[in-house]
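Researcher: We're teaching a course module on how sequence relates to structure. For the next exercise, students receive a sequence and then see the predicted structure as tokens, so they can try to spot secondary structure elements on their own. Here is the exercise chain.
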Amino acid sequence: MRPQPLSYRLHSELDLQLALSHLRRSELLAGVGEVQRTLLCTIAAELGSNMLKFAQAGELRLDRRREAGAELVEVLAEDDGPGIADVPAAVSERYSTAGTLGLGLPGVVRMADQVHIETGPGRGTRVQALTWLDARAPQCRERLTYRRRAGAEPPALALSWGSENRPCLGQTVSGDAVVFRPLAAGRLVVALLDASGHGPRAHDLVTRLAAHVAAHPQPEVVPLLEALHLACRGTPGAAAGVASLDPLSGLLSYAGVGNVRARLLGPAAGEQPWSGVSRDGVLGDRFPTPFQHQVRVSRGQLLLLYSDGVSESLRSYRGCLPGAGEATAVARDVVRQCGRDVDDAACAVVRLA
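Model: And here is the predicted structure for the students to work with:
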């Protein structure tokens, strides 16, 4: 007898964990070997985690049936979130999200026999992952197919940016640097660089690193950090944080190494301030596996990247963040009020409107 399909409505990580616990013990997976059972639960976990991360809620459905003379399990994830602007990029290995297992959509495409995605910016996402349970699976099939949902494109976010960079007391040049790199389709890459030490030697190194950011052929957060690590070999080293903003999809990607911090502030009711995590390490010496964050952004928010010459908590800042001032004015006020005299202090600000 065919087992009953399963449906789970997800609003939180707890909902997802309860769903996965029930799924593993369910009749739907009765008789499925441990290896395939684990694989199916992992597919469900990654699709559920993606829904919560980018859409905050969604529905996870599973069914077991026969198709083309073979038995299969279908995992279906559907949400009303912001959608995916670029499906090929989203399923590439470089785009893997930092979820529960860090596999994301690229991992789902690797694990399932077939994946079909329907999505579009502002029109939600539907991901169907099929896994055959026996060797009689259809041989002629495309592993990945996708369809763009019709409808008017949502308006892109408008980005404006500015920065402030102050040398530590007694120095005329800074060992910190900020690079803004506008790309096609309105995308923006922001890098905040902090060379070890102070003075002319640190300034020379950070100037070379800034040139790498401006010219690198792969302006994505992880490739940029890897290139900066190689550029620091044989030097005292540096810290760096790299953010990428896509105004069409409304997504922020961030990764960092060392004492560089990222914060996303305001403005909507119920939105919590977001802080990016930079991995411990030193570019040129101890390079950890980069941890890439991805988070949705909205109009009225501010993205701040700042070096450890700026107080981590920003508690001494007396302005109104995100405030109404221009990005450059906010960056100047943050450094003036929260910067430490004994260190170089730099702050990059991007305003989303």
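Model: If you want an answer key for the exercise: The helical segments are 13-25, 34-55, 87-90, 104-111, 199-215, 221-231, 327-338. The domain at 6-148 is CATH 3.30.565.10 (Heat Shock Protein 90).
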